[in-house]
Write a structure and sequence with these properties.
Radius of gyration: 22 Å
Distance between the termini: 72 Å
Helix content: 10-25%
Number of strands: 16
Strand content: 25-35%
Order of helices and strands: HEEEEEEEHHEHEEEEEEEHEH
Number of helices: 6
Length: 319
């Protein structure tokens, strides 16, 4: 009987998670195809789903609709035994709040709530050890003379609609602000097109909370975004603080390999110690900025508050 091929621990993806998984908003967010350029105080809300039926149906009395946008340009993330810096990620969604119970229902924009800036992983695939006797790995190593073949890009993606939004937690500390299901797409010719950390059915669920106290500001404004102390709209800004989460678990990768059949799953999981249980992972987001916007007096617009919010948002689009 011939010996089974020896599994060699590859130095694969020394920086697997140089990915942004932030909650949170700057003047240069990662943009989705459906994003609009917005003016003035509307600027952070480029993807608010104001035309979703649930948002439009909010009457201003029983249900109140608001826009939420949050961004962080940098930070760090530890998944398993791998620590890396993050890139920019933009999180946006609508919230329909029940006035009687305080319960909030999240409405995700088309394309998902979170949009991540693609991040190139330092070292690419050249971190792989090149043993003999393992055909797939050895063949890959022999071809990694072309930088385009070595390059690995990681992008965080929505893996479902966020849930459990708590606006009060965003103003204080010690409580999760929102649950964000994500998956991380790893792109390289040898990894195929379906290589992910996490899936839509088994995502990484981030529950960031404030690690430091944010600065709080509120400003009324007109439909086009211009500040006005008598404006029909109001924006709350929570800025300058750090956010983080150390409670999330990370599943193993799936679909990694030239045939997208998972031939290289074991290599990625082995190096990065995935799957990884809660308590072994950590996310820190620096200098976050989170905004909410809605009608100043939604009760004055009953029963058309949701439609009025939509009209005002469209008036803020830069043309």
């Amino acid at each position: 009987m011939s010996a089974a091929p020896r599994r060699v621990r590859p130095a694969l993806f020394g920086a697997l998670v140089a990915v942004a998984v932030g909650i949170p908003l700057s003047t240069s967010p990662a943009r989705a195809a459906s994003a609009q350029e917005m003016g003035g105080n509307w600027a952070p809300f480029t993807r608010c789903p104001v035309d979703d039926p649930a948002m439009l149906a909010a009457d201003g009395q029983a249900e109140i609709a608001i826009c939420v946008a949050s961004h962080s340009e940098s930070g760090s993330i530890k998944l398993g035994n791998t620590l890396a810096t993050t890139g920019a990620n933009d999180l946006q969604f609508g919230v329909v709040r029940n006035a009687a119970t305080g319960a909030s229902r999240i409405v995700a924009p088309a394309g998902g709530a979170i949009v991540g800036a693609p991040t190139e992983i330092p070292g690419g695939l050249l971190g792989i050890m090149c043993p003999n006797g393992i055909p797939v790995i050895s063949d890959i190593c022999r071809q990694l003379t072309d930088n385009s073949l070595n390059r690995v890009v990681a992008t965080v993606q929505s893996a479902g609609t966020p849930s459990n939004f708590d606006l009060t937690a965003g103003m204080t500390g010690g409580k999760p602000i929102v649950d964000i299901p994500v998956r991380i797409h790893l792109e390289n010719p040898f990894l195929g097109s379906k290589c992910y950390v996490g899936t839509t059915s088994n995502p990484v669920v981030l529950r960031p909370q404030n690690l430091t106290t944010p600065a709080l500001a509120s400003q009324r404004f007109d439909a086009n975004g211009t500040p006005n102390t008598r404006g029909v709209l109001n924006r709350v800004a929570l800025t300058g603080n750090a956010q983080g989460d150390s409670s999330f678990a990370v599943p193993g990768v799936s679909g990694c390999g030239p045939l997208t059949l998972g031939e290289l799953n074991w290599a990625v999981n082995l190096k990065t110690a995935l799957p990884s249980a809660s308590g072994n992972n950590n996310l820190v987001l620096n200098d976050t900025a989170t905004y909410t916007a809605g009608l100043t007096s939604p009760g004055a617009a009953v029963p058309d508050a949701g439609r009025l919010l939509s009209e005002n948002w469209h008036a803020g689009v830069v043309r």
